[in-house]
Amino acid sequence: MILSVKNYYFFFVHHRLFLCCVVYLNLCSGFLYIYIYLHSKLYSSTTFLSITINCNKILIFNQRQTFTTN
After folding, report:
1. Angle (nearest 5°) at CA 23 between 37 and 62
2. pLDDT tens across 2-14, in order?
3. What are the helix (H) ranges across 1-70?
4. What is the pLDDT of residues 8-56, one digit of tens each?
5. Furthest C-alpha separation in the chain
């Protein structure tokens, strides 16, 4: 069995902002996973966003979590 899996990574680093985006594509199952991690030192908050897309059934699932520290 040949698996066709592709991963893409994106990083953005700033003195007040850190952004990480990971895209995971599985062509055999037709799933596309997108993970976004955002941390802001200015607002002391962290946001994690997860998106799952099933290309065969066109289903979209979003999950977002935001954490704020004092």
Report:
1. 60
2. 445 567 776 777 7
3. none
4. 776 777 777 788 778 877 766 677 777 778 787 776 777 777 777 776 6
5. 50
Contact between 48 and 39 (Cβ < 8 Å) = no
Domain extent for 14? 5-68
H-helix or E-strand spanning residue 50: strand 45-54
The reported pTM is 0.53
Residue type, 11: F
Token pair for 54: 């099933």
Domain count, the chain: 1
Integer distance in angstroms from the first to the last C-alpha of the chain? 50
Torsion 22-48-46-43 (CA) sign: positive
